[in-house]
Amino acid sequence: MSAIAKIIWYIESHFRRDVSLEAMAETIGLSRFYLSRIFPLATGLTISAYVRGRRLSAAARELAAGAPDILTVALDAGYGSHEAFTRAFRDQFGITPDALRRMGTLDTIPLMEPLAMEARLTGTPLAPRIETHPAMTLAALRERQSMSGGAGIPEQWQRFSRWLGHLDGEIGGATFGIVGEMYADCDDFDYYCAVAVRPGTDLPAELVRLELPGQLYAIFTHEGHITGIRGTIASAYGEWLPRSGYRPTEEGFGLLERYGERFDPVSGTGGAEIWIAIRPA
């Protein structure tokens, strides 16, 4: 059973009760950091968003069936008041609990159904190179993106492209997409479009400087269209890493996408590499 399947099984067995990341990590045998990273990368949802969606979907079924007391449904879903439940329910489905109960049907709302546990994570066959890479200085455009879609990332790359080839001290040959902070209270994360530069390079005000230390990386090759890269990342974290004898580095920027000269940003083809910072388990 993959790490993703174990996480889904745990949530589906516990979501009507408190779901503690600490207890989940201890049961599954993976760190809190690992869990909070791998699940969004594989599914497009944070663990908290999936748990919230499953709880509210169960509540929606009760309401559509005519549950007599909305507060009881709210408490069963883990909300301490009618108001908090109504706000979360409307944010999830675009309709209030009372309105759904009056309608008596689920046909108009997008329920959060259980994710498949047995479906194999798709992606490039896993045969990473293990390499130590020296420290890098990067010039980067940072923007906040959504895990549930990621549709804003290509546009972010378009905005970043105007600096490529025009930065003093730029080290050409490759660009990097970097996953930064993941926000616990929503599905958002920081994403960086970056290029290597020489230390001390002056940067435009719109760009930030990232200093990556020398690190050991597991480097996976992603072939095919770039829209399938999440499958390769999920396979790397969910299938290879738990059995590899390594664990992900939990500080700094531990996940990089490297786009070399073969990559065509217009067509989204040409392949890419996934760099995961690791250390011995």
UniProtKB/TrEMBL annotation:
PROSITE patterns: HTH_ARAC_FAMILY_1, HTH_ARAC_FAMILY_2. It comes from the Bacteria. Keywords: DNA-binding, Transcription, Transcription regulation. Residues 5-103 form the HTH araC/xylS-type domain. InterPro entries: AraC_E-bd (IPR010499), GyrI-like (IPR029442), Homeodomain-like_sf (IPR009057), HTH_AraC (IPR018060), HTH_AraC-typ_CS (IPR018062), MarA-like (IPR050959), Reg_factor_effector_dom_sf (IPR011256). Pfam families: GyrI-like (PF06445), HTH_18 (PF12833). GO terms for molecular function: DNA-binding transcription factor activity; sequence-specific DNA binding. This is AraC family transcriptional regulator. It comes from Devosia enhydra.
